[in-house]
Amino acid sequence: MEIERLEDRRPVRRSATGAFTLMELLVVMAVIALLAALLVPALSAGKGQSQSAACQNRLRQIGIAMTMYVSDYNRYPPLADTNAGVNSLQICFDKFYPYYPLRWTNAVWNCPTYLASGGVVLSGYEQMWIDWCSYAYNWSGTGDPRRDHLGLGFRMDLSQTIAREPEVLAPSQMYAVADTRPTIWSNAPHGNIKMQFYSFGVSRFNSVASQESPPPHDRAYNVLFCDGHVVKVPRTEYLYPPTSAHHWNRDNKPHPETWIFPWAVQN
Questions:
Q1: Is there a domain that residue 17 lies in?
Q2: HEC string of 144-195?
Q3: Which domain holds residue 150?
Q4: Rounded to two decimals, what is the model's pTM?
Q5: Distant-in-sequence, close-in-space partners of 165: CB < 8 Å, separation ≥ 6
Q6: Phi, psi values for residue 57, rounded to 5°
Q7: Contact present, 195 and 221 (Cβ < 8 Å)
């Protein structure tokens, strides 16, 4: 009969220190990496949806202020008002301050996606093109603001360019304010306060081509309409005149004779 040795009954231990083996550590790390790879897209999508929802809420506040302004003045604000004071310039968003007491230069007023990408918010007073923010105003429609009078308004001293309330024939159809289409300067997005559907190549309004920042909300822009509702509009629709041009104009007509080519989207 074989005698069992005492040492054979001792429990088997991993090691003297109880540490994991190299193989076990590699397996754990691989599992963690796999879980992270699965979770990151979901977290990123959730963050993007949250930022888009916050942007839409801010546009709705702007829409309420715009409605109150139009009710008081029976017209829409101009893009620029050089009559605001000596060496000063008010833009359309300054006109909303009495109704929405938050300056457009405040981060809380602006789109969180634009801010998260390093977008520049800057107020100037001598030239309108040094004002940068996350939203743009439908100042010209599809045409030349001095000649065609299709947008909501160019300058206060050019009163004929400013849309009166009855001249916007379909408020629920006309774009008023939208996410800006920033240009990239010094590696930072600079959001023009002017809505525009043309390509950022050479055009009537540009003499030099510039790099455009991608759409802020999953290839789409949040857009405020003149009646105050907000919709996320895909880039392929928003910047394609055959589909959207009537939304840009106060008479709700496309006016193809005014379209600037090349368009930003060419389906």
A1: no
A2: CCCCCCCCCCCECCCHHHCCEHHHCCCCCCCEEEEECCCEEECCEEECECEC
A3: 28-258
A4: 0.80
A5: 70, 74, 75, 76
A6: -65, -40
A7: no
Asked if the structure places residue 91 within a domain, the reply is yes
Number of H helices, E strands in the chain: 4, 8
Q: Calculate the alpha carbon distances from 255 to 42, 148, 201 in Å.
A: 43, 10, 22
In angstroms, the CA 67 to CA 227 distance is 8
Cα–Cα distance between 92 and 16 in angstroms, integer? 74
- pLDDT truncated to tens, each residue of the chain (267 aa)? 455 554 555 554 555 556 778 787 777 787 777 776 666 564 555 667 788 999 999 999 999 999 999 999 999 999 988 776 545 678 999 999 999 999 999 999 999 999 999 999 998 754 445 789 999 999 999 999 999 999 999 988 888 899 999 999 999 999 999 999 999 888 899 999 999 988 886 455 554 557 899 999 989 999 999 999 999 999 999 999 999 999 999 999 999 999 988 889 887
| 110 C-beta neighbours (distance < 10 Å), count | 20
In a domain, 220, yes or no: yes
Gap between the Cα atoms of 263 and 171, Å rounded = 25
